[in-house]
Design brief:
The protein is of the alpha/beta class. The chain contains six helices and five strands. Strands 2-1-3-4-5 form a five-stranded mixed sheet. Strand 1 and strand 2 form a beta hairpin. Helix 1 packs antiparallel against helix 2. The protein is globular.
Length: 177
């Protein structure tokens, strides 16, 4: 099981091998982060925050179990990393790529951080905070609106989640929390 710097190194190699210029490529990096999360026993969700120049600012996967933190969703971790790197909690002119439609908590954080655009893979009919259950980020009562695009590499994102939970149900995930 990769941990610490090994995890970052493995995810970094994905970025190094791609010439970043398309949404699909950024989502592939998010999927790589999701796979690393699954290897750690976490729900396989990955996120990547990209600047207006196409540079990857931050990326991570879920770490709620590892950090014993219900707020350690991939999106939240990426926003925290980017805020520290930029020295500001506001992250305008950025795009977040995430493998699953964000929950209400993460969608709210995207609004507060002033992220400009959200691109997600699979919809989350049980907890989706952007289109499925709620429309956080597109509610005009809030002080910031998100441009939202869904369905990018949705089949890959959905399959990763389905396979993870199928393995958990069949006992292949025994010994993992």
């Amino acid at each position: 099981m990769p941990t610490g710097s090994n995890v970052l190194r493995e995810a970094s190699s994905v970025t190094a091998s791609l010439s970043m210029n398309s949404p699909e490529q950024y989502m592939e990096v998010a999927l790589a982060e999701a796979r690393l999360a699954a290897e750690r026993g976490e729900v396989p969700i990955g996120a990547v925050l990209v600047g207006s120049g196409g540079e990857i600012i931050a990326r991570d996967g879920n770490r709620t179990i590892e950090l014993c933190d219900p707020g350690a969703h991939a999106e939240m971790l990426v926003l925290r990393q980017a805020g520290r790197l930029r020295g500001n909690y506001r992250l305008p002119d950025t795009t977040l790529y995430v493998t699953l439609e964000p929950c209400v908590m993460c969608a709210g954080a995207l609004v507060h951080a002033r992220v400009s655009r959200l691109v997600y893979g699979a919809v989350d009919p049980k907890a989706g905070g952007v289109v499925s259950l709620f429309q956080v980020g597109q509610d005009t009562r809030l002080n910031h609106l998100l441009a939202v695009e869904g369905g990018l590499l949705a089949a890959e994102s959905g399959t990763l989640l389905k396979d993870f939970f199928r393995e958990r149900r069949t006992g292949a995930g025994e010994g993992k929390r």
